[in-house]
What does this fold into?
Amino acid sequence: MSSILHRRITAPLVFMTIAGLALAGCSSSSDGGSSNKGPGDAGKADGVVTIYGTIADTEAQLLEQSWAGWEKKNKINIKYESSKEFEAQISIRAQGGKAPDLAIFPQPGLLGDLASRDFVQPAPKAVAANAKKYWSKDWSAYATTGGTLYGAPLMASVKGYVWYSPKQFAAWGVQVPKTWDEMLTLTKTIQEKTGKAPWCAGFGSDAASGWPGTDWVEDLVLRQAGPATYDNWVSHKTKFTDPAIKKAFDSVGEILLNPKYVNAGLGDVKSINATPFGDVARVVGDGTCAMTHQASFFDGFLSDPKNGNAKVGPDADVWAFLTPPIKAGGGQAVTGGGEIVAAFSNDADTQKVQEYLSSPEWANSRVKLGGVISANNGLDPKNASSPILEDAIKVLTDPKTTFRFDASDLMPGVVGTGSFFKGMVDWVNGTPTDQVVKTIDASWPSN
It folds into this structure.
């Protein structure tokens, strides 16, 4: 399971302030380190740089392997520490004067909160230059608060893939849809040809049950209403009860709430909540289910022997296309997640490590080791460890792609990973859209 996925299914512990929520509307400063904001001089170059983050276990070992050669060459010892309580502990450490030199933030809102309170150093000029050269404005915006850039992105994930069997599509005489309406027509055609439900879904994820449903809604809000409405929704300028958000729910409902269309190989509509999200890989891999909606990490579940060891690729057992836009043509709009590296110290060694982690050299080094991707446009897609990750890299680094960070990760925790998650579960269980969105709105913090 990827670290990005792990964070997706564990609720953030820290409330994200409005300063953090408005990140998508910010632009990075032109000079990065020249800002007079931030905590001032901190730390002294001593050949050791500490990094704190959520990346653990095998992925932590790969992270350390990715910079091992650079460490030796530059004579800097990078000491990495992981924690499942990062979201709470990083604030405690910062306020207590015991912050690490660098931190890998999984939520832009948390970084924005600490930056707005002057705990985080503005990005050095070299990091700002890398962000400008190798990262899109959308990505840089998530590391920006109050017009100041505080860090650079690290790894990434792409959400909104629709997984299917190329052989089945060929046998049924159907094509990959180019618009949302074509996907609805495709769904109806497969149901009529087979007499079975074409889609399957699983919202089960213990305390975080419901998050796969939020991904669906986020995809539709971005595609139907556009990035401006999406950004306003994240900051609650646009309420859940707004017609644009309700339309996204109801559009998803045309598939997920239709008993003719779900839940292939798993049960009825309500079985979506009872099905662990990873278990869907089995019925997709063996062809029982024609389509499912899940992020780029899903190929790992499909290829897992316990799920049938399906092969993933354009001509293999399972392949994927992105949830199509409302209208054909133009660039793609996608949602996803990732991390941002920001500094609490500004000594020369820390700045050098932060610059390296924002570079294509590091991105290629880590991606070659497998299992992850980056949106760094200096990354060679051929270094990806699977065809779907290679495709995801191309999507992320395409200048025509409009990217937005997962909305529930940007909203206050009580909403994004609280009432929004629960609302999706209630919605599948039969609670009307109007009631669900009103309940979510009512949970939004007043300040």
User: Anything to note?
Assistant: Residues 44 and 405 are 34 Å apart (CA to CA). The two ends are 35 Å apart (CA to CA).
